[in-house]
Prior knowledge:
The structure holds two protein chains of two kinds.
Chain A: H1 2-22, E1 31-36, H2 40-55, E2 59-64, H3 68-76, E3 82-86, H4 87-94, H5 103-112, E4 115-117, E5 127-131, H6 133-138, E6 156-159, H7 160-164, H8 169-176, E7 183-186, H9 188-197, E8 202-206, H10 211-214, E9 218-220, E10 232-237, H11 240-243, H12 247-252, H13 260-271, H14 277-289, H15 300-335, H16 337-352, H17 355-366, H18 370-394, H19 398-407, H20 411-441, H21 454-463, H22 466-494, H23 497-501
Parallel strand pairs in A: 1-2, 6-7, 6-8
Antiparallel strand pairs in A: 3-10, 4-10, 5-8, 5-9
Helix pairs in contact in A: 1-15, 2-14, 15-16, 15-18, 15-20, 15-22, 16-18, 17-18, 18-20, 20-22, 21-22
Chain B: E1 2-11, E2 14-24, E3 29-33, H1 40-47, E4 55-60, E5 63-64, H2 70-74, E6 77-81, H3 92-102, H4 107-120, H5 137-149, E7 155-159, H6 167-184, E8 187-192, H7 195-201, E9 204-209, E10 212-217, H8 219-224, H9 229-237, H10 241-246
Helix pairs in contact in B: 3-5
Amino acid sequence: xxxxxxxxxxxxxxxxxxxxxxxxxxxxxxxxxxxxxxxxxxxxxxxxxxxxxxxxxxxxxxxxxxxxxxxxxxxxxxxxxxxxxxxxxxxxxxxxxxxxxxxxxxxxxxxxxxxxxxxxxxxxxxxxxxxxxxxxxxxxxxxxxxxxxxxxxxxxxxxxxxxxxxxxxxxxxxxxxxxxxxxxxxxxxxxxxxxxxxxxxxxxxxxxxxxxxxxxxxxxxxxxxxxxxxxxxxxxxxxxxxxxxxxxxxxxxxxxxxxxxxxxxxxxxxxxxxxxxxxxxxxxxxxxxxxxxxxxxxxxxxxxxxxxxxxxxxxxxxxxxxxxxxxxxxxxxxxxxxxxxxxxxxxxxxxxxxxxxxxxxxxxxxxxxxxxxxxxxxxxxxxxxxxxxxxxxxxxxxxxxxxxxxxxxxxxxxxxxxxxxxxxxxxxxxxxxxxxxxxxxxxxxxxxxxxxxxxxxxxxxxxxxxxxxxxxxxxxxxxxxxxxxxxxxxxxxxxxxxxxxxxxxxx
Amino acid sequence: xxxxxxxxxxxxxxxxxxxxxxxxxxxxxxxxxxxxxxxxxxxxxxxxxxxxxxxxxxxxxxxxxxxxxxxxxxxxxxxxxxxxxxxxxxxxxxxxxxxxxxxxxxxxxxxxxxxxxxxxxxxxxxxxxxxxxxxxxxxxxxxxxxxxxxxxxxxxxxxxxxxxxxxxxxxxxxxxxxxxxxxxxxxxxxxxxxxxxxxxxxxxxxxxxxxxxxxxxxxxxxxxxxxxxxxxxxxxxxxxxxxxxxxxxxx
Lengths: 507, 251
């Protein structure tokens, strides 16, 4: 009986969760998908590209993704059509391994990959090392990167990308003879807070960052000319020219229109004055190109509702799909002993893959957006459900198994009528664990444009705004608590009464 | 009813049942008795096909208790174990009717049969809709017996069903069981290590030791015509309080 209940519950969950997917009307206009990295400048530029594409009669979808590897692979995979990157990043990170000395070589290498590069947008956003105002006052003679050698005790905090990139800290520390081990990696936007709070002494900055002026950060002179130029350029897919011929020239109008001061000012508006990026971008295209844009910003309630539905969709689909696979897998593992260890190890190994890495691994296969996030969450849900199904079946006491066997029921009926109901509490606990963990993990989907509560969390980090961060974090925590509650209630419905009145399965 | 031909069984190299032949007659109560590890429970499991013999064949009503027909044959045999082995997720009634419901027996018939069995086993009316965890040990055992008898099987196998009960309940159930065995005239194979219980319930006793049958006969045969000194040792090893008080041991 409870098997039927379980099935009907699953159907309801699936229907609820799949519904938002169903409706999406297609119109005739070509759609251009624009990417951006998860920092303010990139998002503003992504919004500007969106307005330019719309001005050429196309529909524009703007997706904010994670760091360079995610955005680049999304471009290669055709998940996005264009985004803004920097020549230094292209040379040192995207095309590392190729020896590139001129812009023409870079263009040729990109063309081989089906990617075109625009003329420079106008500003150079290079890396620099900065120290806080307080430290600068204490050490007036600390002016160049070479000077850092005289202060071996300083703590370096770098953006995660800078920590790992070949043009980042590994090469910089070697070039200047700085102690490499003193550095720790953290989010770029969080590093500003760390510097201000005094928990780190030196950080990497992007020279157009608004915070440099705001916090009075002293930039150290790159006296050995280590950092290359980081001219902002538009990267776009070759096939965009065929798909949306009017769009490309419209995008290319951006070349030579934004200088460092302008970019830095736009960043400051978005980040320090808390003007939403779409409005900063709209003001720019109006002034520069006379393009009127029609920006509709969601109200907080609308946003919260959307985040909630998206988040429920991520968790609901992934857990539902996981139940459908993991319960049978758990049954097989419990019934076929040689397969059992294999299945348990396999799902156990899946669990050890770091979630962000799994999201990124899945992008070439599934693109960006909700799908890879759902796939990753699905894989993570397998272990708790498989293991609990296995344990639940495995722990049924031998006398009960023997009594079941002695009745002369076929094994299918025995499983359905006796074994699964006896294991139901354990299975449900596994599903609960999977759902609660997924509600937390799903917030990382914000890095690959999966929607949900991760979106405001990462916007909050990027814009240094706790109110946005809490817009995601608080509902995510509440949803986890609610899930816990719902599962405890559903135990009354799904777990047979006789199992709840006694302590356990054995008498 | 049951027939074992040259049946043997080993677990991981240790022989628990030497090749043996045994015929179990219809309509009588046969008690398998012997010390722990003598193979009596193994023998019972072989009768129902819960274990596969290493050699030989087990026949039930002339059919082999193996292969595809084993599930069907089990419907004709009731099985009751120590502690009852009731499924905790089902009520007493749910346990009793599980198989009948699965076989789609008519609901009226099932309900009537449950009531009949409840009276036969002296289970209180209010207990029938409780869950096993809410029942006493004795009640659980009565429900297990009802479950075993539900489809009116030809035979009833019981593996130390009263082993976990306190003495008063145990004596009461022994009386009830003897009455039920006598009135139903079913083939009963009853495993115990308690010679008093065996003497009380059995038409015939099979005493086992180390995987072999030492003697088969009535309690009088065992007491007065022991086939082996072990028979007397086994019987006299069970303390008789009256003789202890008298201060005179049997030996």
